[in-house]
Amino acid sequence: MKAAVLVFPGSNCDRDCKVAVETTTGAQVEMVWHEETSLPSNLDLIVVPGGFSYGDYLRCGAMASLSPVMAEVVKAANAGVSVLGICNGFQILCESGLLPGALLRNSGLKYVCKPIELTIENRKTRFTSAYGEQKTVWMTQGNGDGNFFAEPDVLKGIEDNGQVVFRYVENPNGSANNIAGIVNSAGNVLGMMPHPDRAFEPALGSADGAPLFHSLMRVLQAA
Amino acid sequence: MKATVHIFLKAGVLDVQGKAVEGALNGLGPVQGWGGVSNVRVGKVLEFDLTATDKAAAEAEVKAMCDKLLANTVIESYRIEVA
Active-site residues (chain A) (predicted)? Predict the structure, then answer.
């Protein structure tokens, strides 16, 4: 497996993502600076990491979504490459139009930073097939703008198409329908606010993020 | 020309900052001598200069900036002034 982790000014989970992908899959992971106008060839996975790209100025993820490298990510996503956006990465994917909806300020106005339990809503995606019969997972959450919003008709479409992948057991931020993570309609782009990159081995408090990366390996092995 | 852009969350989108400010205003009301505040919305104002000299062209330019970067039209609406 060959993966790339994007790095924006203000990214702070880029190294976590690299270690998580390497540790769980043995993949070769390249770090790609946001000003790059091309991506490494033959990528299987692009990770858009968490952090505070461009200081969260204007809107979270807004300026990063227009970085030169994002034009290449959009092309790769449209060509079927797996794209995983975590936290600020989810915000960037929504801003770029790869995922529907937007992330608003948390309804409680507080930065929410804690372990959080999620239900797996769709275990047939390329990101969740290795979870087997596991019903819920623990990961950690750390954001101030994680309140997922979409217009009612868009939200209905997301629900009807099975695009909701993770839901919060207890809603920490006012997200519509308790949504914590969604895929695009093609199923190759996943955005989620909780961090699988901070929960991939027991020493981190939870290893529930690891099967997400194992799932991506499975897809490749089956191909 | 000088451009001014006002950006607010759309009417149907919960503005939690606005709600907090509203709560604070109404909470302070009895002491400060004001009250009855509702529908507080917190937005952004951006001001910048443009080299364009034609008003219509400048407005079109600023509209493109809003649609591409300055506003997220999934959740926000904007109003442009060019002078």
Answer: 87, 195
